[in-house]
Structure formats: C-alpha cells, structure tokens
Task: structure prediction
Amino acid sequence: MKRFIHASIAGFSRCLDFNGRSSRSDFWYFMLLFMLLYLVVAFVDQRFVDSTVDIRELPLGQFIPMGMVDPEVGILVLMYRPIMATPTVAVTVRRLHDVGKSGWWCVLWVLPIPVVGWLYLMPLLCRPSRG
Result:
C-alpha cells in the first residue's frame, strides 16, 4: 500500500516532468490509480449526472481513442480524460526512458490507430529497467 501511495503522489507531483525515469512498479501503480479514479468518476457521472456527450460528434471526435470504446460519456468523464492526460503521458515517457526507448513511443497510445499501437507499446512498458 505504501508503494501505491508513493507512486500515486510521484505521478502527480512529476506530472510536468518528461525527463528521467519511472520504475515499472511506479508506472503500473499510477495506471492502477488512473483506472480506479476513472471508475469512481464514471460511476458518479452515470449515477448523478444526466447529461451525456457523444464523443464522435465533437470536432475531430472520430480520432479520440476512447470514443471507439465508449462513445457516449458524461460531462465528468469528458473532463477527467484531458485532466489525467498530462500525468499519464509524463509517467509513460519516463517509463519508456527507463527501458531505453524514446519517450516519443508514447504517441502509440493514440496514433496511428488507437488500440493497435497499444499492442506494441504494452510489452515495452512491461520490460525490466535498463541499467
């Protein structure tokens, strides 16, 4: 539990730090926090907020990765995603540095085709740290 809390705090306190490294455990604990918070926000959004937005109807909405998975979202979920984007990209870039790759590989989260890029990116993020 202590490691989870430390990784969560580090993820937010270093949200604008795209240099350096993040260990495998720091990355995955932060991603666990991301998913847990997402579930809470989605639950609150579903339960207590009536208005929803169809992501595909937004400008360039067809290019938003989660729009392919969950196109109709509530306002809270729609706000959560961009708020968490910077810390998530930063920890991903640092994790990629830790395995000896360029941080630019994190672009695979969204390009060229979301989900397809994840198939290459996920094994990179699971590798052990390099020296």
In short: The mean pLDDT is 86.
